[in-house]
Structures are given as structure tokens and as C-alpha cells.
Amino acid sequence: MGHFSSMFNGLARSFSIKKAKKNNSKSDVKEAVEEMAREAKKKELILKSSGCINADGSNNLASVFSKRGEKGVNQDCAIVWEGFGFEEDMIFCGIFDGHGPWGHFVAKQVRNSMPITLLCNWQETLSQTTLAEPKTGLDESDKTLQRFAVWKYLYLKTCADVDQELEHHRKIDSFNSGTTALTVVRQGEVIYVANVGDSRAVLATVSEDGSLTAIQLTVDFKPNIPQEEERIIGCNGRVFCLQDEPGVHRVWQPEEESPGLAMSRAFGDYCIKEYGLVSVPEVTQRHISIRDQFVIMATDGVWDVITNQEAIDIVSSTAERSKAAKRLVEQAVRAWNRKRRGIAMDDISAVCLFFHSSSSLSHDIHPATTC
């Protein structure tokens, strides 16, 4: 199976270590994966609060920070899992923005469920040789495409499973509540990005002239994007702005001014699912070059008041990388108070994932520091 199968070896070893049955039922697989997560947490490889994570020997450093807004409980949450799937060169990062009366519960449920479900689906894929093994005679570009096809399949299945599990959750009412979900998996020198909703991932890379440039990796899935609006209207949903919110397009039921969602993709929100809201992720990949320095994942509370370029400038000029997310959020708070005075501040959260322990290029990126 060669290099391609190495992305599955860590999980395969973990099941061997846990002596899982050869013919694992879904419950057996989930139990083994949950045990893996508990072990990773004991080793401080999982971060679910503001702070940073930088495992010994890892090229990754992830900085996380979240600040509650002025609308009540903080409905944002995040996760970083170093050594994801028992693979030393893998890291999983996710950021989630809940909304509605149960939004904070929904966001945390999806945060906790998504990496576990992804690994469960990963284990299932191990037994499907047509997916797990590339065809012989393929060149490296074709193998890259096939690896991406597997990740896309895994994410599509995972998001469908997570949304279905959420719908039937006995303790969380997600009929009128939901969450966005933006995740990045780094595996070696490739990142896989899956986005549901209007959080955003922005890459910082060094251009030919040596300047640090922002590249937006995701689409903000707002209801007025043509293909999103077309789908919603095709399902008898409606898209329009309220008079006191010009420019803020929302999704509405056919005959009621409810729920008024400001995004076109989300987990939960089953009151509007049959009218065009979906939890299908957009999945993309990028090979990390020496010029690519870090990626910022942030909820819309950041992007409402900070541009992509401003964000990477703030992060790159932070003296300690471990404090990069905090400084970005603090700058967004200041910008919100300046630009949106009188409007209740949204929850503001960010994850900054650095790719290199130090840079071989001459620009204003500081080396990683111990957390």
C-alpha cells in the first residue's frame, strides 16, 4: 500500500494495541476510538480551551483563544488534537460557532463528536481496499488526487453521521439551534480543510517579493451566494434581509419569519433543513510549501471587523506564537468597539496553526516558543 496507506497505519496500530475484535461492530470501533481520545487527553495532546499545544518533536504549534461576546453565554468552542489517529505527523484543529437557544450545547457536541466519528469512519475505510489502496502505475499527482478523494469521502460521511446523531440526541434540542464547523487536518505536508458554515480559514504565505500574503482557503457560506440561494429557493426556503439589517441575508421558512439564519450550511437547525439548509462540507486540500507559514481559523466575529491581511499581519507580528490567537481576538474586540459601536459584540474565537518550528525565509515571522 506504500506511502498512501501510512495515513491509516496509526489508527490500525491503535486497534491492534487495544485488541479490538477483527470484525468490529460500530460500537466496538467507537469504544476503541474513545479510549484513544482519553489516552491522548491524558498525554495533554488534546486542547479544548484557550491556550496552546506544542508536542515534543512536533513541527506544529497551535494557539487557541475565545472571548465571550455581549449576547449571553459563549457559543464558540474549539479543539486541537495533536497526534491525531496515533499518527505523529497529524493534527486535527476545529472551530465551532453555535447559535440559537441551545447553540452552546450543539457546538460542544459537534466538537466532541466530529473527530471521534472521523476516526471511526477512517477505521471502516481500512477494510475497503478499493478506497485504501491506490491503483498500481499511478504517478504521484494521481496518488495525491486519490488521497484527497478518500479524505473527501471521509468528511462527507462524517458530517452526515454527526448531523444525524445530533438530530436524535436525547438531551440536546437542536430543532431551532445549530452550529458551524470548520476543521483542518494536517497530515505530513498536506492540509485537508472541511467547512460547514461561515467561519473562515486564511493561509499566510510568503510571496515572490518576500511579503506575507493572505490566501482565503474557505468560502463564507452565506445564503445570498448564488448556488446556495438557488438550492434554498429550490427547496421552498426564502432568502432576504430584514429592513433594519440591510446587507444581512438570512434563511427563512416558506410562510414564517423564522428562523432567520445568517448562514446556508450548519449542523442542527432541523426546523429549516427541509428548506435548503445543509450540513454538507466543502472539502479542499493544499500542499504546504516552505513559504506557507500558518493558517488562521476564526469565527465570523473576527472576520466581521478584521480583514484577511490584517489578521495575518497581527499574528505574524506577535512576539510569542503561543499568544497569537489571543492577540488576534483582542485586536478584533478593539476593532468591533471602534467599527460597530452600539451593536452587541459577537463571540470571537480563533485557532492559529503554525507549520514550521522556524522559518528559513526572511520576513516578520517569529520562531515558536514553549507554551
Automatic annotation (TrEMBL):
EC numbers for this chain: 3.1.3.16
Alphabetical GO biological process terms: negative regulation of growth; response to water deprivation
The keyword Chaperone appears for this protein: no
Cellular component annotations (GO), alphabetically ordered: plasma membrane
Keywords, sorted A to Z: Hydrolase, Magnesium, Manganese, Metal-binding, Protein phosphatase
Cofactor: Mg(2+); Mn(2+)
Keyword Membrane listed: no
InterPro entries named in the record: PP2C, PPM-type-like_dom_sf, PPM-type_phosphatase-like_dom
Catalytic activity: O-phospho-L-threonyl-[protein] + H2O = L-threonyl-[protein] + phosphate; O-phospho-L-seryl-[protein] + H2O = L-seryl-[protein] + phosphate
Any Pfam family: PP2C
PPM-type phosphatase domain location: 61-355
SUPFAM superfamilies on file: PP2C-like
Record-level Gene Ontology MF annotations: metal ion binding; protein serine/threonine phosphatase activity
Family, as annotated: Belongs to the PP2C family.
Protein name: protein-serine/threonine phosphatase
Native source species: Eutrema salsugineum (Saltwater cress)
